[in-house]
Amino acid sequence: MQREQVAVVTGASKGIGKAIAVALAKEGYLVIVNYNGSEEAATKTVDEIIANGGKAKAYQCNVSQYDACQAFIEEVVNTYGGIDVLVNNAGITRDGLIARMSEEAFDQVIATNLKGAFHCIRFAVKTMMKQRSGRIISISSVSGVLGNAGQANYSASKAGIIGLTKSVAREVAKRHITVNAIAPGFIKTDMTNQLSDAVKENVTQSIPLGEFGTPEDIANAVVFLASEQASYITGQVLCVDGGMAM
Ligand code: NAP
Questions:
Q1: Phi, psi for 96 (deg, rounded to 5)
Q2: Which residues contact 163 (CB under 8 A, 6 or more apart)?
Q3: What pLDDT does 2 receive?
Q4: Any idea which residues carry the catalytic annotation?
Q5: Rounded-to-integer distance, Cα 135 and Cα 88, Å
Q6: 1 in any annotated domain
Q7: Would you say residue 245 lies in a domain?
Q8: Number of independent structural domains in the chain
Q9: Which of 45, 162, 207, 236 is deepest in the core (most CB within 10 A)?
Q10: Atom 44 of ligand 1: nearest residue by CA position
């Protein structure tokens, strides 16, 4: 019997990750909704997917921890028989100017955003190599492509995602696994809600399409990169940013 198609989405309790989980469930994937602290929100994501006829399961795992990711990914593989799509979406910001940035703020952002993606890829790629198929999609950022004042830690983590993506893409291409990154611009979520109205206004001026994007704009790009139509695309960074990085 053919097993269920499985998609793991990290940081899927809210925001962009939630929209990705909902969209992949609509495509027929059994979606593993990963979260760190927001159990209630993750359960809500799962309930919404199930109410719409989809399949999903919530799993707690702090992606910044190597051993926890190993246990998480191995449990998914043992339970469902494989992983077809891995979306590295979990991310945090600890913004500040470089001259005042604490070592902790730098380390926390790298540990979650960059090492978190490394940890999940490190273990998921083993099952994908055995399958001789798979899709790895990591969420970078326009800040990783262009840099952004006040985000040295975050930009470094997101630029790191791009290097990680291109190197892994080269390593696993022969096994029919594609590895790509999406670089969102400014998207309406809790992360950007923290910005002051003045900053939001300033940012909006720099977006050629003239407005913030939605989590669904990113989810649409993930669905495409996960699809059969994208099977000849690997090692790429798809900017979904209203034209910011052109
Ligand atoms: P968000 O609303 O703050 O959601 C972040 C998600 O990441 C939450 O589900 C959170 O889960 C999870 N998370 C955080 N730390 C985690 C950890 N250690 N382990 C597992 N999960 C963890 O953020 P968002 O705006 O949707 O951003 C999603 C991704 O897109 C991030 O990688 C972000 O950098 C990137 N991005 C966002 C924008 C934007 O404009 N919003 C632009 C470019 C890139 P818990 O609440 O359970 O901790």
A1: 175, 160
A2: none
A3: 85
A4: 154
A5: 11
A6: no
A7: no
A8: 1
A9: 45
A10: 141
Cα 119 to Cα 72: distance, rounded to the nearest angstrom? 10
pLDDT, position 1: 73
Q: List, for residues 89-142, the tens digit of each pLDDT value.
A: 999 999 999 999 999 999 999 999 999 999 999 999 999 999 999 999 999 999
Alpha-carbon distance 30 to 49, whole Å?
A: 10
Between CA 139 and CA 233, with CA 77 as vertex, the angle to 5 degrees is 40
30's enclosing H/E stretch is strand 30-35
Cα separation, 91 vs 240, in Å, equals 17
Coil vs helix vs strand at 187: strand
- For residues 167-175, average pLDDT: 98
Identify the CATH number of the domain in which residue 230 sits. 3.40.50.720
DSSP code, position 209: T
Contacts of 211 (CB under 8 A, 6+ apart): 204, 242
Quick one: which atom of ligand 1 is closest to the CA of 111?
18
Of 97, 96, 93, 118, give the one whose Cα is nearest residue 108. 93
Buried b (16+ CB within 10 A) or exposed e, 116-147: bbbbbbebbbebbbebeebbbbbbbbbbbbee
User: 113 alpha carbon to ligand 1 midpoint, in Å?
Assistant: 9
Q: Are 218 and 20 in contact (CB under 8 A)?
A: yes
Cα–Cα distance measured from residue 127 to residue 125, given in angstroms and rounded to the nearest whole number: 5
Query: Is residue 28 included in any domain, yes or no?
Result: yes
- Site to probe by mutation for ligand 1, drawn from 191, 237, 240 as the one with most ligand atoms within 8 Å of Cβ, is 191
Domain range holding 75? 6-240
Identify which of 193, 198, 196 has the alpha carbon closest to the alpha carbon of residue 212: 193
